[in-house]
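Document type: protein sequence-to-structure record

Subject area: structural biology

Format: plain text, a pair of labelled lines:
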Amino acid sequence: MSLLDRMVLREILVPLGVGLLAILQLLVIIQLLQLNDVVFGSAVTLGDLGRVTLALAPHFLVVTVPLAYMLGIQLGIGRLAGDSELVALSAAGVHPARLFRVPIAIGCVLALAVAGLTRWAEPWGMRQLNQILNNVIKRNLKEGVVPGVFNDGLPRFMIYVGGVRQGNWRGVLIEDDVGDGAPLLALAEEGHIAESGGEALTLRLQHGELHRFEPHGETVVRFQDAAFLVGVQERVSRKNRFSAVEGQLTAVALEAQIAEAERNGWMEDAARMRMELLRRWSVPLACLAFALLGVPLAMGARGTRSSAYLVTLGAFVGYYALSRLGIALAEQGNPAWLAAFIPNLAVAALGLFFSARIIRNGLGHLK
């Protein structure tokens, strides 16, 4: 590498690394705050928070890497422009195209990294996150029964517990008056909630009575041990916003889901899943598109940090808006591949336009 290439590389990599860490932390914290009723429950441990953060990291890195790269270009190349080093390079006979070589090379490396994230790491992280959140929600339901008050946190059942000793309830009352059957009232000396696997919990009671109220009278059954199966799938799905996202599916599973949706005539669902499949190829190319757009914009910004942040934010918001437009177009029956690559094509076209002006006018005429 020439001295100029090493200088450009150093100027971009430092803000790229700092921006990557800062933006990733910000996105993870915002997501944790949105999941506060789940991840900050009474049953959550520091280990759970660590696993949730680790599972979220690949998903947010897919967004963070192109955004941090754009910021790195704006701050790095912009500093060279602000200190008039680009003018000095132009006076020394350096062709403007030389400044594109290192950013495009970095963009290629980052594109490969993001492609690996979207194809393997992100689906794995989403599956892990879904499993962790489901377990945490079920543990919160198990430990959310407060002694001395009527608890309705579990579906169907109203539970009253007189006290808790060594993890077991004492003096348990359970009422079930939901459904088509007769109302039930269970009284027991002891009880607890046990894991039953899948999307269910089990209420286990010892030494009690079961009262069934019917039109012709009351039926009373005494028991030594009893169990009520509580389906919590709906409650878990409502609290876990990642329970049904397509991002946790592998490419093979997505293709199978798309084929099934098309057989059933669910064309909007098929289009949305096909866009998810194509997104895993289009997002990595955003790094190259931002390289073409970021370099000429950084040269024109003259090194001001406020301009660097505004240009990065504006480019990202525009890219996201075009992505949402692509999804809408795909759901209306337009070609999915064209809708998926609209953001990249628009950013690259704009970048080529400004880059051509820079190359035609030279580094000494940046405006």
User: Anything to note?
Assistant: Residues 155-231 form one domain.
